[in-house]
Amino acid sequence: MTDRLQQALARIRPDVRAAHAYVVQPSTGVVKLDIMENPFRLPPELQRALGERLGAVAINRYPAERTAELAAALKAHAGVPAHCGITLGNGSDELISLLTLAIAQPGATVLSPLPSFVIYEMCAGQQRLNFVGVPLRADDFELDEAAMLAAIEQHQPALVYLSYPNNPTGNLWDAAVIERIVAAAPGLVVLDEAYQPFASRDSLDLMARHPHVLVMRTMSKFGLAGVRIGYLLGAREVVDQIEKLRPPFNVSVLNAEAALFALDHAEVYAAQAAVLRAERERVFAALQALPGVRPWPSQGNMILARVADAGATFAALKARGVLIKNVSAAHPLLANCLRITIGTPDENTRLLAELPLCL
Length: 359
Ligand code: PMP
Fold this sequence. Notes:
Blueprint (H helix, E strand, L loop, with lengths): L2 H7 L4 H5 L12 E2 L11 H12 L9 H14 L6 E5 L2 H12 L5 E6 L3 H9 L3 E6 L9 H11 L3 E5 L11 H10 L3 E5 L11 H6 L3 E6 L1 H5 L5 E5 L1 H10 L7 H12 L1 H23 L5 E2 L6 E5 L3 H10 L2 E2 L1 E2 L10 E5 L3 H10 L5
Parallel strand pairs: 1-11, 3-4, 3-5, 5-6, 6-7
Antiparallel strand pairs: 2-8, 7-8, 9-10, 10-13, 12-13
Helix pairs in contact: 4-12, 5-6, 7-8, 13-15
The site of 4'-deoxy-4'-aminopyridoxal-5'-phosphate has 13 residues, from helix 5.
């Protein structure tokens, strides 16, 4: 390394230099059940129609009008009232980053139950904020109400995240407990509903009752993970603050057009989600019947399961061409836990055939 390069690198924050970039596992040629994608493509005739629509987009212009139309269409899709605020992100990952930036001042705290979505803590770290993780109950991964309320009282968090359903545990926490946590929280509370297409409940009523509650959703699990559209719903006064931090053209006009196309064909995606929910129940029952595997019930498109040796099972499955995620190292409560994304019926059948050979 040249001196000049070393000198320049030394100006980058030491904590950034010490950090690791988010790693996506290589997945060419394997059954990909690792990161909660919708495994279904659009039918060929809709793929062609999408291609035509994208071909007609004026990509010489910065996006603005189509993204505004997408924002309106997403509000209608979610069924929120016209006065509700909305802001769009390049995936909900970007919204988490913007929310963190909005509250980033010395001493501010971000709080979330753990284990949960790792990006909450990562973004708090990037802004050098305090992150308080409150362990879930060990056996059923329910919220520990007393611990959550005590942590809120002690740390007065500016931002609380509740992943609903939770990643990676897949469950929906008790609504009455959430209501009491929301009532006690002095700052913003974000209900992260990334897995809403697979869940039996949502938080729109909660949001209507509490102006400091925001609901964050994404089109990723709907079937557009590659398109990168997340959205944040909530009181206009709050959303307006996030809007000030949003890079003006963060959502590409092609992404907006693809998302509008998908909303025009929402029934296709709803049918895919229905298949995935039914498959989730089939996979759950099969896992439950396997000696040495303990799955937890899920309301997402993934199932968390404990095995005797998660590292060995993960590696053996991978060698047999099935890629899942070994989440054991993410939190002590996840010791020997694997997270299995629900795939197509054929992919799930393959998983269920291979798994007993890998335990
Ligand atoms: N929230 C949760 C709980 C997630 O699990 C994920 C992705 N796995 C996201 C948000 C981010 O989704 P995206 O950036 O694709 O919208």
